[in-house]
Amino acid sequence: AIKKRWDRHADDRSRQKDPRLLKDVSELKTLSMIASALGGTALARVFRTLCFDYRHWSGGLPDLFLVRTRRCELTTTTGCDDDDSGSFVDLADWIGEGFSRDHIEEKNIQSHISMLADRDDEYLGQPKNADGSSSQQQQYSARRKKVAAANDVQLPSFPKRLVFTLDEKRVKAECVFVEVKSANDRLSERQEDWLSILDDCTNARVCKFTNSSKI
Predict the structure, then answer these.
(1) Which residues share a beta bridge with 71?
(2) Quick count: other Cβ atoms within 10 Å of Cβ 36?
(3) How many whole angstroms from its chain centre is CA 84?
(4) DSSP letter (8 states) at residue 59
(5) Rounded distance, CA 139 to CA 127, Å?
(6) Cβ burial 84-110 (10 Å sphere, 16+ → b, else e)
(7) Is the sign of the CA dihedral 87, 92, 94, 98 positive or negative?
(8) What are the distances in angstroms from CA 208 to CA 178, 183, 185, 205, 211?
(9) How far apart are CA 150 and CA 173, in angstroms?
(10) Any alpha helices (H) in the chain, and if so which ranges?
(11) Rounded to an integer, what distance in angstroms lies between the CA atom of residue 145 and that of residue 139?
(12) pTM value?
């Protein structure tokens, strides 16, 4: 589907105006790994539930979606047996993208800069429009900066298909949905329904914290 959206655009200039496409392309290997971890049955079940009543089922999904990948031995009968060594695959080396160390460091830096910029006026004891400019002028300036930034976006190259082999061993992706609850918190009816739907076709668990005894 992402490849069709990519080819639907006439040229690279047209692709740069589609931020959702650029985001999906930059995370295509990650999406492929997630799809493999879930499997066709779970994907079909999730999509069917959302299509049935999106307004209702768009809420209540578990808090966390955890994924791990490990090597397994190739066999002619079952296709893949678990590797006794239990060696996990480093996602930064195999996939890169958002798992790469450079990307994580860049995101952390951007987050810190954004946090400091938002609070700069608060530290000075001044309101956001202390320079006397109207909110309408600020909105117009922000839109111009957004358009300029969009024009400077670098077009990523379309990645190659993700190969689920590494070091002559097959890579197996596994996943689990986790709903996190405190000691006094309870599952809502919709959360219980989602956990039942997901646990029927993949792994879904509840992580409940208990009150620790004071020392």
Answers:
(1) 171
(2) 18
(3) 30
(4) S
(5) 16
(6) eeeeebebeebbebebeeeeeeeeeee
(7) positive
(8) 10, 6, 9, 10, 10
(9) 35
(10) 2-8, 12-15, 19-26, 28-52, 54-57, 91-94, 101-124, 135-151, 189-199
(11) 10
(12) 0.71
φ/ψ of 2, rounded to 5, equals -70, -40
Q: Residue 83 is encoded by which pair of tokens?
A: 């590797």
- Which tokens hold the place of 196? 């039942």
Query: Residue 167 and residue 119: Cα distance in Å, rounded?
Result: 48
Rounded to whole angstroms, how far apart are CA atoms 9 and 97? 23
- Residue for token digits 């956001």? 128
Reading the block at residue 95, the tokens are: 């996939």
pLDDT, tens digit only, all 215 positions of the chain: 888 988 888 888 888 888 899 989 989 999 999 999 999 999 999 999 999 999 999 999 999 999 999 988 766 544 565 544 558 998 988 898 888 888 788 888 887 787 776 555 554 454 555 554 545 555 555 655 554 454 556 777 888 889 998 888 899 999 999 999 998 899 999 999 999 999 999 999 999 988 776 65
**For 196, how many CA atoms within 13 A lie in the half-sphere containing its CB?**
7
Distance CA 11, CA 13 (A): 5
**Closest to 69 measured CA to CA, from 212, 165, 134:** 165
